[in-house]
Amino acid sequence: MTTKYAALLRGINVSGHKRVPMPELRTVLGELGHTDIATHLQSGNAVFRSDGKDETALAAALEQALHERFGFSVSCIVRSGSYLAAVAEACPFPAAELEGRQLHVTYFDRAVESGRFAALDAQVYRPEAFELGDRCLYLYAPDGLGRSKLAEALARPRQTAGLTATTRNWNTVAKLVEMTRV
């Protein structure tokens, strides 16, 4: 039985750097044996069906194929549709009441211990706020990610060392949940 997954590529198609055209991404996924492939936006969101059950192995295979195809490294996180739906359901912020640009999810390649962000004084950044979830971090940024001082603090090397992380706004989170429904 196949599983529906989302591949979240980090840092592509930003200011003309690391260009990965979505038709080529779909081709690469197809060459890896995946089916029912679709992309969303130009920022590295793809969904596909696979017999594979190991998200880490699926991500590693995609990273290798992208490196071979484009000649540069692209970090990828692969998550099942059921995981994406659970993350959306567990959101600690009132997603239905917020604009998509105000709420974000940062997906991590593995579980993150709560102590990693303990030194960060979240009160300083109010009304912005964050909460850790299952291999993710929820960020409420009322003025958007581009103006968020909290997002900047969360992304500092001391906070993210050794992690692969990629962030999506709530509109994209919801769209990927929809696209990965079985």
From TrEMBL:
Gene3D superfamilies: SP0830-like domains. It comes from Streptomyces microflavus (Streptomyces lipmanii). This is DUF1697 domain-containing protein. SUPFAM superfamilies: SP0830-like. It comes from the Bacteria. It holds the Pfam family DUF1697.
